[in-house]
Design a protein that fits this description.
- By secondary structure, the protein is of the alpha/beta class.
- The chain is 20% helix and 37% strand.
- It has two helices and nine strands; from the N terminus they run E-E-E-E-E-E-H-E-H-E-E.
- A six-stranded mixed β-sheet has the order 1-4-5-6-7-8, with helices on one face. A three-stranded mixed β-sheet has the order 2-3-9, with no helix packed on it.
- Helix 1 packs parallel to helix 2.
- It is globular, with a radius of gyration of 14 Å.
Length: 140
């Protein structure tokens, strides 16, 4: 991982890898107990005043990256935070995922969000998911 201090990383093989803030959370099921690195991005891996997402989950071989932003209602700003973080500390990978977990999306998915999802897919090789309050995903 590019420019990430070791103090910002935590190794885990937990069967449930969780990131949570203000009643918003994402849980990654890790049934095989594979080794992952949990990275606190906001205020640790990136300490300056630039925009950045909250967390990053990286596979032990660093071939899989999962960027997480836990946000209130400003989904477009959350997407900008994910994009800035990928540009700054992301490695070259074809297995990248980005998540916005928010309190609400109004109205549903806007055209701007759909355009951003295409950009993430094409430019960053990342699936961009926007979910409300809580999301669970299985790691393989």
């Amino acid at each position: 991982m590019r420019n990430v201090d070791d103090s910002c990383r935590t190794e885990t093989q937990d069967s449930q890898i969780k990131f949570e803030e203000n009643r918003r959370k994402i849980i990654f099921a890790n049934p095989s107990n594979l080794k992952y690195l949990k990275v606190k991005v906001d205020g640790c891996a990136i300490r300056d005043n630039s925009i950045r997402c909250d967390y990053l989950l990286v596979s032990d071989d660093e071939k899989e990256e999962r960027y997480v932003e836990l946000k209130g209602t400003d989904v477009m700003h959350a997407i900008d935070q994910l994009e800035a973080t990928i540009k700054r500390i992301g490695e070259s990978t074809d297995n990248r995922h980005s998540y916005v977990i928010c309190t609400g999306v109004a109205p549903q998915y806007t055209t701007r969000i759909q355009i951003k999802q295409i950009l993430f897919r094409d430019k960053y090789k990342s699936k961009l998911l926007i979910k409300e309050k809580e999301f669970r995903e299985k790691l393989y």
